[in-house]
Amino acid sequence: MAVIKKKKDKALPAVNTSALPDIVFMLLFFFMVATVMREVDLKVTVNKPQATEIQKLERKSLVTYIYAGAPRVKYQDKFGRSPRVQLNDAFASLDDIQPFVIQEREQKSEEDAAMMTMSIKADKTVKMGLITDIKLQLRKAQALKINYSSNQPKDVEALYSSEN
Amino acid sequence: MARNKRAIPEINAGSMADIAFLLLIFYLVTTTMDTDKGINRKLPPFDEELVEDPPPIKERNIFTVLVNSNDQLLVEDEYLQISELRAKAMEFIDNNGDGSCEHCQGYKVSTSSDNPDKAVVSLQNDRGTSYGMYVKVQNELVAAYEDLRERYAQEKFGRSYRSMDQEEDKEILKEIKLAYPQKISEAEPLNIGG
C-alpha cells in the first residue's frame, strides 16, 4: 500500500507539445495546396448532373463560370423559384451574359483569351430552354469552348436508373 | 564578455499552435475541395444569316437522337432506354457500309452509316428536356466515340487511349481521333411541350 501512495504524490510530467505546431502547419499546408479559394457566393442551388466521360479543367485562370438553378430559399421572396442565371455574385438576366463574357475576356491576356472556357454549372432539374438561351448568348459573344460541369457518379449503374 | 555568456531566453512557442490552428480554420472555411470536371464541348459559331443550303447529307449517315420534354428518347424512330444508347450509337458509327474503313468491325448494313468519317450524330431536344437528361445523352454519345477510339488504340498500338498523355502521345492521339472523328451536331431545340 505504501508503494501506491508514493506514486500518487508524484506530479505527472507535462506532455511535450512542442511538435504540435509542426503537425498543425503540415495540415495547413496540405489544405493550402489541395484546395482552391471559393470565388463566389452561390445564390442558386446547383445539384450537378452526373457523367462518366468527364475531363478536368486544368487551368483555373482560363475558366469562367455561369451558374443556373433555382434561387436559394432566402432569395426566393425576391427572385421567385424559377431557375435563374447567376454571374459572379449577382443574379443576372440573359442579356447580361454577352457583356460579362466580353469583360472577362478583356481581363485575360490575348493568348489566354483564345483558350477561355465557359463552364456551365447548372442544376440537373433546369429545363433545356434556359440552357439553350445561355448557349445562344455565348455563341453571340464568340465564347465557343464550353464545359458542362458534372460529377463522376459513385455507382455507374445508377446513371441508367430512371429516377435521376 | 560576460554579457555573451548569458543564456538567451527561449522564445515562448506555446501559442504557435494556436496561430497555426487559426490559419488552418481560415483555410478550411474559405476554400473548396472539389476540382472542376465536366464534359467539354464546342459550340458552333453564331451566324446572322442562316446557311441557305446546308451541304446535303445522306439519310443513312445521320443518327437522329430526339429527347422530348418527358426525358424520353427516340433514336432512329425507335423508343430507346438511355442504357441502350451507347451500344446503338457505336453500332451506327462503326457500321462501315461502303467498306472504306479498314479498322471498323461493323455489320455493313445498307441502312446505316457509310464510314465513321461520314457518320453524323444529330441530337435534338425539347425546351422542356431536363438538363440532367441532356448531359446524360451527351455523355453516352461521347462515350460511344471514346469506346471506339479505345478499341482502335488497343488493337493498333496495344495501349489504352484513355491513359495517353496529351503532350507525349500527341501524334498517336491525332491519328486515333482521325480514325473516329467525333461528329455530334445539335439542332435548335423544339418547343412542343413544357
Q: Give the overall average pLDDT of chain B.
A: 83
The H/E string of chain A reads HHEEEHEEHHEHE
Beta-strand portion of chain A reads 15-25%
Major sheet of chain B, described briefly? 5 strands, mixed
Q: What share of the residues of chain B does DSSP label as strand, in percent?
A: 5-15%
| Main pleated sheet of chain A | 5 strands, mixed
What does the radius of gyration of chain B come to?
28 Å
Instruction: Give the helix proportion of chain A (percent range).
Output: 25-40%
Give the structural class of chain B.
alpha/beta
Mean pLDDT of chain A: 83
Strand order, main sheet of chain A: write it out: 5-4-3-6-7
Distance between the termini of chain A: 71 Å
CATH-scheme architecture of the domain at 60-148 in chain A:
2-Layer Sandwich
Measured on Cα atoms, how large is the radius of gyration of chain A?
25 Å
Strand order of the largest sheet of chain B: 5-4-3-6-7
Overall 3D form of chain B: elongated
Distance between the termini of chain B: 92 Å
Description:
The complex is a heterodimer of chains A (164) and B (194). Chain A has 164 residues and is an alpha/beta fold. Chain A has a domain at 60-148: Nucleotidyltransferase, domain 5 (2-Layer Sandwich). Chain A has six helices and seven strands. The termini of chain A are far apart. The model of chain A has no long low-confidence stretch (mean pLDDT 83). Chain B is of the alpha/beta class. Chain B has a domain at 59-186. Chain B has helices spanning 2-5, 16-30, 82-93, 131-156, 170-179; strands spanning 31-32, 37-42, 62-67, 73-75, 78-80, 120-125, 184-186. In chain B, strand 3 and strand 4 form a beta hairpin. In chain B, 26% of the residues are buried. The mean pLDDT of chain B is 83. At the A-B interface, helix 2, strand 1, strand 2, strand 6 and helix 6 of A face helix 2, strand 1, strand 2 and helix 4 of B. Strand 7 (145-149) of chain A pairs antiparallel with strand 2 of chain B.
